[in-house]
Each structure stands twice: as C-alpha cells, then as structure tokens.
UniProtKB/TrEMBL annotation:
Residues 22-86 form the RNA polymerase sigma-70 region domain. Keywords: DNA-binding, Sigma factor, Transcription, Transcription regulation. It holds the Pfam family Sigma70_r2. PANTHER family: RNA POLYMERASE ECF-TYPE SIGMA FACTO (PTHR43133), RNA POLYMERASE SIGMA FACTOR HI_1459-RELATED (PTHR43133:SF8). One of its GO terms (molecular function) is DNA binding. Belongs to the sigma-70 factor family. ECF subfamily. This is RNA polymerase subunit sigma. Signal peptide: none annotated. NCBIfam families: sigma70-ECF (TIGR02937). One of its GO terms (biological process) is DNA-templated transcription initiation. Residues 122-167 form the RNA polymerase sigma factor 70 region 4 type domain.
Length: 181
C-alpha cells in the first residue's frame, strides 16, 4: 500500500475507534425506517466524507464538533438514500418523469419501454407553451429561471409543467402498459 493509502487507513482507524460506537446507535435507529439500508454503511460513509473534507487532526477540543458533523452527515446521507429510492419508485410509476427529469445510474424499466422517438413524439404533441416550458425544464433550468426567460410568473411555469406531465402521462401510458415502443 502507498504512503498515502496507509495515511488514509490510519485516519480511518482513528475515526472508527473514536466514533463508531457512538454513531452506530443513531444509525441503527435511522435504519429502522429503511431496513434495506445498513447502519454500518451509514457510519462508514460519514467517515469517508469526513476524510474528504478535513485535513486537521482530531483533538479533544474539536471532538464534539467532529461528532456533531459526523451525525449530521450520516443523517443527510440517510435521507438522500431515501429520496433516491423514492425517485426510482416514482420513475417506475410515472413514465413522464423517467427520461427527462430523473438522473439515475440505471435506467428503470419504464425508460426501456418508451423509446426516444416515442417520447419526442409525445413532447411534440404538447401545446406550444407547455412544450417550450417543459423543454426548458429538461435543460435543468429552475422554475424561476424559466419564468424569467419566458417573462411569466413562476406560478404559470409550475402550472404549465404540471399540465405537460399530465398530458405526457396520458400520451405515453398506453405504450408503457403494452410494453411496445
């Protein structure tokens, strides 16, 4: 192992020795709501993120700060995992959310059942204002940015996006149900 690898391993062992026993109970408590998540993985992820963000050694003076930081990071990672799981389920349930609004490592089965040509066809069926608003959202613009660009209130953008998703769901649902492209 390289000198850097030994250094990281040593820091990880120090973190584990000092904080693992104190972090594991809150991690176990969190994981009761999501049994598929492993408390040890939450603790490990908190340690890895700590090593990525801090160079300074842990002292008795900053021990409480470190512990609070680790718990905070662990909680955030847990909720990120829940949101990711929820997003994946929504993508499976709603074909309009998969291709354009969900960034996922593994495409869900809905994505595979609706080809690009079919999705582009459905987008072209939208009324012009909905289509433009939806395509701007697909470019990762926020709703306020879209509103500014189009010169309309944010509420109008929200309504157009909602209507576009409802329309796309109606247009694409038969192809999802049949499993054809």
């Amino acid at each position: 192992m390289t000198k850097t690898g030994n250094n990281v391993t040593g820091k990880l062992e120090v973190l584990h020795g000092r904080y693992a026993k104190r972090l594991l109970p809150p991690a176990q408590k969190l994981c009761r709501a999501a049994p598929e998540l492993d408390p040890d993985d939450l603790v490990q992820e908190a340690f890895v993120r700590f090593l990525d963000h801090f160079e300074e050694p842990i002292t008795k003076q900053n021990d409480e700060y470190v512990m609070n930081w680790l718990i905070n990071v662990m909680n955030r990672h847990f909720y990120d995992q829940l949101r990711k799981r929820s997003s994946r389920q929504k993508a499976v349930d709603d074909p309009t959310l998969t291709r354009w609004t969900q960034a996922q490592d593994v495409p869900p089965s809905t994505y595979e059942r609706i080809g690009q040509e079919r999705f582009d066809w459905a987008i072209n069926q939208l009324p012009k204002q909905q289509r433009i608003t939806y395509l701007l959202r697909c470019q990762n613009l926020t709703n306020p940015e879209i509103a500014s660009k189009l010169g309309v209130p944010v509420a109008t953008v929200n309504k157009r996006l909602f209507d576009a998703r409802v329309s796309l769901r109606k247009l694409l649902q038969p192809y999802v149900d049949e499993g054809i492209q």
